[in-house]
Amino acid sequence: MCPFCYIGKRKFEAALEQFEDREAIEIVWKSFQLNPDQETDPEVNLHQHLADVKGWSLDYARQMNDYVTGMAREVGLDYHLDKAVVANSFDAHRLIQFAKQQGLGDAMEERLFKAYFTEGANTADHETLLRLGTEIGLPAEPVRAVLASGEFAGAVQADIHESRLLGVRGVPFFVFNRKYAVSGAQAPETFLGALRKAFPEWRQANPVLVELASEGAVCGPDGECN
Fold it and tell me: Could you name the CATH architecture of 3-198?
């Protein structure tokens, strides 16, 4: 629900496209709630919500949202913040955790971002989450079961606890190799610099095993030899 997270995602992706070893990079999304106590209210306009929370006038809140919409447009995103639904994000985070388990974490993040910022979808509504999950290839019945239960709540809370240990106070927040951090929707050049700094250190600590020949006779742990 943070508008800068979607923008930051696009800027990081632009950096990754320029990175020489991009195929070796694994992206792991972590849960973080800006307002865990946020109540879902489809009747509240986002402009009014922002004005109430920040103590701004309604006109100033609209101006800020227009400014953010312009930032999004610069990276190819089409924000419609006038349609955004004020919603609690906890169940959406649980769905992301399930998607991560299925190897679809990035796809789920992307679909939720678009649903919230562009389509005006209620991302706390279970039927909406079910639809979004199945659109990216998640099986319907397991998604329905996850949403109907408290499953993956522990994983969400574990990520939030980890963020506190790392000193995260806001998002987006990118951590490279658990050693370097970039805070905010920075320019692609900043992300590229972080990748080029962190990756060689990771590679040195995790050398690649190169198999020069694979046709000799071998025995496996199951006792089969060939």
Answer: 3-Layer(aba) Sandwich (3.40)
